[in-house]
Every structure is written in structure tokens, then in C-alpha cells.
Amino acid sequence: MKRKLLTMAVVFVMITVMAVPAASFAAADITVEVNGTQLTMDQPPIIQNSRTLVPLRVIFEALGASVDWDSVTKTVFADWGNNSLTLQIGEKSMKLGDGTTVALDVPATIINSRTLVPLRAVSEAMGASVDWDGTARKVTVNYTYHVDESLLVTNEAQFVYKDKDSYHIFFLEGEKVTGYTVYTKCANDKTAQTYADSLSESEVTEKCVVDEWVVADYPEKTYKDLTLAELEKKHTAYKG
């Protein structure tokens, strides 16, 4: 009887081990640097199918993106510069603000109440370069901030209108406006910094200077209840 119980126990352990995905494991020894700064993470990176996944907020904010999370649909929304992406837990693709769909080798996942995203995929989608040093177990991400005016145009994910030196961008989910950002081109970076400093915290939620550009995010009260139909009625869509 003891031998039979021991055999059953061994079989149970084997089944339990086999039930754990062998292709996914913690990688606390991996370090990630963005533009020379090592990132601090409360959830260590994991390796899944030879891809490194890291906490989404840490990497997005290190790259200058703002992040929103929809707990109902388990969807990540990230905005940076003049682009954005939408990424849903478990899905093997993500959608960029210009309408492009990017395939993922591994989907985003949730571990210890933290959402982890594939580091290389999201970084490269944002225009960053990614290098892996297997000996040092280090990922190096380099990102140069710039504004590509060719992307400041109306498409299915955003409505844009232009006045003088500013592009007004309204991010869309169908007919609903979900965000409002203004890009203002100044004479030089010094003028841009002066203009950015003049924008108070009561006016904008976030602001930054990228070369001669000032990028400012405006609070929800400025676009609440606004629809695409109303924008089209008031403004001429800018299409480049």
C-alpha cells in the first residue's frame, strides 16, 4: 500500500510540474536600462518563450508615455509623442494610433497583480532601439524623443485640426473622444521651454518639451462628452 501511495504521489507531483508552463519563468537577475538609467521594478521581469516581459507602467513611463488601464476589458492604453497604442491582456497583437496592427510573439500578462508587457515589442513600437547582453543579463533601451509631423494627421484613432503653429489631437474610441493633446511648434527649444513653463498645472495634466515642440495633455473636462461628429462640425480635419 505504501509503495502504491508513493507512486501516486510521484505521479501527482509530475502532473503538477507539467501543468506549470515551462516556457515562462522569473528572471529577477535581468536588469533593464533606458537611456542609461537602470529601472526599478516591484515585479521582476519574466522570460516567456525567449521574450522578456516587464511591468508596463515602468517601461512606458521611462519612455515618456502616459498610461491608462481599463480593468474591465483588461486593456492598456499608452500615449506618447504623437502616437499611441492599445494592448489587451492575452491578445497576441497590439494596435498603434496610426491604425497599424503589430503582431506579438507573446501577449501581455498579469502576475502578482502587475501587468507585464513584452519589452522589445512595445519599446520598438515607440521607436526605441533594444539590445540584449546575454553575459551581463541586461537589456539596454535607447530612445530619442522627436516629433514626426507626418503622423499628426486625422485617422481612425485620432481627429486632428491645425491652427497656426499648433496641432490639436483628439484621441478616439469609435465616436467618443478619450484624450486631448496639443503640439505647438516654437522658434527654438529655448522658446519652447518658456512657453511650456507658462502652462500652469490647472491648465494641463502633463507637458514636455521635445526639441522646439511643446507637447501638452489637457484634462478630461476639456473634452468630456465631446464626440467625433461635433469635432467634424466645428473644425476641418487635418490630413497632411
The helix content is 10-25%
- Order of strands, main sheet, comes to 1-4-5-12-11
Please state the structural category. alpha+beta
The general outline is globular
Query: Count the strands?
Result: 19
Residue windows where pLDDT falls under 50 for at least 5 positions: 1-22
Notes on the structure:
The protein has 240 residues and is α+β, with helices and mostly antiparallel strands. The protein has 2 domains: 120 residues, Copper amine oxidase-like, N-terminal domain (Copper Amine Oxidase, Chain A, domain 1), CATH 3.30.457.10; 86 residues, Phosphorylase Kinase, domain 1, CATH 3.30.200. Helices cover 20% and strands 39% of the residues. It has a 5-stranded antiparallel sheet with strand order 1-4-5-12-11. The chain is globular and about 55 Å long.
Question: What's a concise summary of this model?
Answer:
The chain has 240 residues and is α+β, with helices and mostly antiparallel strands.
Q: How would you summarize the topology of this molecule?
A:
Elements: H1 2-19, E1 24-26, E2 31-34, E3 37-38, E4 46-48, E5 51-55, H2 56-62, E6 66-70, E7 75-80, E8 83-88, E9 93-96, E10 101-103, E11 109-111, E12 114-118, H3 119-125, E13 129-133, E14 138-142, E15 158-163, E16 166-173, E17 176-185, H4 189-198, E18 206-210, E19 213-217, H5 228-234
